[in-house]
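dude i think i finally got it to work??
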Amino acid sequence: MHPVPAGKLYLIPNALGESPLETVLTPTVCQIAATLDYFVGENAKSTRAFLKKVGTLHPLNKPLQEIEISELNVSTPVTALPGLLAPLLGGRNAGLVSEAGCPAVADPGANLVRLAHEHGITVCPLVGPSSILLAVMASGLNGQSFAFNGYLPTDKAERAKRIRELEQRSRQEKQTQVFIETPYRNQALAEALVSTCAPGTMVCIATDLTLPTEAIITRTASEWKNKIPDLQKQPSIFLILGQ
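look at this
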């Protein structure tokens, strides 16, 4: 008997925040998602909510309650990954869904994608919003060379030290430095950037991307003083470029 061909792993983008899917996803994304009966997401409940929205734009091939959803998040042990991949090795196509934006970018799904490659499974990324790229595009900072650094330390002294390191690297390499923070710590990070960076360093704060409340503002650190908006609980991307 010939072995069953492995299924494909589709990387299914999601909306940022509460943006309607039809405004940020292509019809092809919804059409492909609607054909799948196995998904891996950070949270089963939110993945079902995503699929329910998909179903309003393109009929699902199976009733929502019959679609299998497995969870993959920061608490998932590495030993669980082979089990998540097993349905694909059995011939089923699957969708990897992020909570927001593009899967496997600043997202635990990257580990599953790596394992898929190790098993020769075809990985198919689909077009969708990336808050990181949208922020770089709209910042006016260097889009030829940039680095995403994830989260900065929460300790004030360590955070300030890291900001100075990134600022120095940015200045020397003319490279935009990009990072994120948990929404409830956005205000502290913005204030730390303004107080730590040199007066002429460019600082961009991109908030609520793709939402009606979207705001993307680039100023020097000195120009930001006493002008930082209320960023509490608002998803934001931070960028700096030393001059």
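Residues 34 and 98 are 16 Å apart (CA to CA).
im so relieved honestly
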